[in-house]
Every structure is written in structure tokens, then in C-alpha cells.
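Troubleshooting log. The previous structure file for this entry was overwritten by mistake, so regenerating from the original sequence record. Sequence copied from the archived sheet and checked twice against the printout by T.R.
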Amino acid sequence: MQPFSTLPQSLKELITGYTWNQVTIGESGAKVFCLKRNHHPTYYLKMAHKLPRRDLLEENSVLRWLRNKLPVPEVIHFAEDDNRDYILLSEMPGTNAVDSAAKVNKTGLVKLLARGLRMIHEISIDDCPFDRSLKVEMKIAEDNVKNSLLEDGDFDDVRIGLYSQTLYEELILKKPEKEDLVFTHGDYCLPNIIILGNSISGFVDLHRAGISDRYKDFADVVASIKRNLGPGLEPIFFDEYGILEPDREKIEYYTVLAEFL
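Regenerated output below.
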């Protein structure tokens, strides 16, 4: 059954006869569906409104650039209509790291996450066209505050009840003097890492990927590990990644910045 009666014709021709099941894990603003049909490849269809930003258009560009650089989904088709963008993706074999957590040793999983992030950060940025540096991210944060796109008080448990303008001013004051720029995932959390056996088979949800400080990914994964696996595992992650003394202030800074993006 197809839950949407109106789709771009080019997309409709590719998925006729498929059954749809909505994927609810993750916090993306897009609607995600797993599409299955006997004797046909499984697809994932993501759709999102074009406003306030076109994340799927960005993801389409990032995934095409990353082909042969990282194990990422293949873009089968990208389409748009007056209101929405649509991206049809190939299936990555395996299970997301949240669902895999019950089947594997937590320490082993954390080490795997560290090696996966190291793989991402080692991609050359010499010809990377995606700028997610602090200057760009702060402009996004500023626009979101000015346009009242953030709900005051709707922050994480540590900052709940604070005003977005107050936190944004804190970001300006505490802005790091230097950035350790690498290619970053942009949302490196357990639901976006696909595990097959004892290895990573793929990375998904890369619409925020690009050149940024590696600590942006550190902030995301540290929070995700604690949320999904429990406390006390952070030192194992950084030891496997190869950092003896992580910069706690930077982790905190990018944790706050993530609230605005």
C-alpha cells in the first residue's frame, strides 16, 4: 500500500508495486519508509518539505560525492514537486547500531564506532565542496534564532528551560579560536551507523556532512553512546580513536551548537 497519493511521476514509476513501512527510529525531520517487493531490491524513500531547508537536496549531493569513498547508500532517484523533496536510496546490509547493541558486546561496539568515525575523518577534504565550518554553522544558528525556528526551553536535560537567544550568545562568547577541520558525518549517532556482523557496513543520514571540526562528530557520538549504551564508555571510544585527552570544552561547545541546527 502506498500512503501518499501524489508523488512525482518519475518516482512513482520506480516504486509501483512496493509495500511501504514507515521507519520511526531517528530524529530526522524527513519521513522515511522502507519499501519492499518480492524479487526486487529493497529501497528506502525519504521525503521532506522544502522549507525551512532542503536537507534531502543536500543529502543527494553528499551521497553522490561520497560514492567510492565511503560505504553509503546509492541514490537511486531524486525528485521534487512544489512542496517536497524525495530521495530513493538503496538498502545498506545490516542493522543500525541501536538495534545491534543487544546482540554485541558494548565495548566492542564502541570501538567499532570509533574506527568508523576515524574512517570518515580520514577522507581527503582537498576537493570537498561541502562547507560545514563554524562560520557556516553559526550563520544557520543565527538565522534559526532570528526566525524563531527554535522553541525556547526545548533543549536537552542540562539546558532545559533556557532561552535560545541566551544560549546563542553563549556560543558567540565561547567560540573556539581554532578548528581542527576534517570531513565530518554531521550526525554521527548510533541510529545512523549500520552494523553487519562485527563490522560497519554503512553510514546513513549524511545531509549535514562536510568540512567541519572533528569535535562536532565527537559531541554527537559521545551523547549517543551515553543515551543508547549507558555511561562510562566514553574513554574506550577515545582510546580506540587515538585521542588520549579529548578537549572537554570543545565537546561541550559543539553539544550546545547542535541544539541550533
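The two ends are 34 Å apart (CA to CA). Archived copy saved in two places this time.
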